[in-house]
Amino acid sequence: MNAGPGALLRVATYNVHGWKSLGGRRDIGRFVETIRELAADVVALQEVVMPPLIEEECLERAVAGPLGMHAVSGPTLTRLGTEYGNALLTRFPVEQSRGHDLSVRGCEPRGAVEVVLAVPGGRLRVIATHLGLRARERRIQTEALLALVRERQDVPTVLLGDFNEWMPANRTVRAVSRELGATPAPATFPSCFPVLSLDRIWTSPGLALTSLRRHRPAYATCSDHLPLVAELRHPGNGIDKNNGETRKNEL
């Protein structure tokens, strides 16, 4: 892979399994340390559990704050007084954000979080998601995601998350790879003996993918997924990483 010019960025995706270890113990602190190990600028999280009403505050205080990052939440459902869904952490100012409902009738609610970030290379759009368990459901959700990708071809885009695709050459993976280009797919599930590539990272043309790997946490019992980490080069036009405050406006 050709690194080329521009700013080097690191992005990651991690299904945190409701902050529960393989043994069933819930320990947000261990997961925070695992996310710290990634040293990523942007981290997409799936299966995030937080109390309702104050979810944004809890995510900021319990997870993003200790990491020196900003949080954007994307809950998809509420169960027994607890909100559950997607989230995105970033070191960069958030210029714009919005959530997308990817739910299919008769299936568990699903969604995606979309943000535009001010990064050292200019602007970066990130779409973080967690697709459903049924093949037809994932096909519908993938079509919606690809339509979303096409909306903003002026901004370099990263599409990442837990795509729940069990087969390496399935219809969903082929569709995204045709649109954005094929990328490596290290196995991330189950974390104790990974054989399935459920977690994926794709980038739009203009973003040079320099590496993509799975990460083995120091706390080996964290989650049933391993984090997936990618480094990429932004084409670059000189936006300051530290310029401006975090803003969460509608696109």
Topology:
Elements: E1 8-15, H1 28-38, E2 42-50, H2 55-67, E3 70-79, E4 82-90, E5 94-101, E6 111-119, E7 122-130, H3 135-151, E8 157-162, H4 171-180, E9 199-203, E10 208-214, E11 228-233
Parallel strand pairs: 1-2, 7-8
Antiparallel strand pairs: 1-11, 2-4, 3-4, 5-6, 6-7, 8-9, 10-11
Helix pairs in contact: 1-2, 3-4
Pattern of helices and strands: EHEHEEEEEHEHEEE
Largest sheet: 6 strands, mixed
What structural class do you assign from the helix and strand content? alpha+beta
| Poorly predicted ranges | 238-251
What percentage of residues falls in helices of 4 or more residues?
10-25%
The CATH architecture: 4-Layer Sandwich
Q: What count of structural domains?
A: 1
Radius of gyration equals: 17 Å
Distance between the termini: 32 Å
InterPro entries: Endo/exonu/phosph_ase_sf, Endo/exonuclease/phosphatase, GPI-anchor_lipid_remodeler
Keywords: Endonuclease, Hydrolase, Nuclease
Domain Endonuclease/exonuclease/phosphatase: 12-225
Protein name: Endonuclease/exonuclease/phosphatase
Give your account of this protein's structure.
It comes from Solidesulfovibrio carbinoliphilus subsp. oakridgensis. Residues 12-225 form the Endonuclease/exonuclease/phosphatase domain. Pfam families: Exo_endo_phos. This is Endonuclease/exonuclease/phosphatase. GO terms for molecular function: endonuclease activity; exonuclease activity. The chain is of the alpha+beta class and 251 residues long. The protein has one domain: 4-Layer Sandwich (Deoxyribonuclease I, Chain A), CATH 3.60.10. Helices cover 20% and strands 34% of the residues. It has four helices and eleven strands; from the N terminus they run βαβαβββββαβαβββ. It has helices spanning 28-38, 55-67, 135-151, 171-180, and strands spanning 8-15, 42-50, 70-79, 82-90, 94-101, 111-119, 122-130, 157-162, 199-203, 208-214, 228-233. The strands form two sheets. A six-stranded mixed sheet has the order 3-4-2-1-11-10, covered by helices on one side. Strands 5-6-7-8-9 form a five-stranded mixed sheet, covered by helices on one side. Strand 3 (70-79) and strand 4 form a beta hairpin. Helix 3 (135-151) packs parallel to helix 4 (171-180). The two termini are 32 Å apart. 45% of the residues are buried. Residues 238-251 have low confidence and may be disordered.
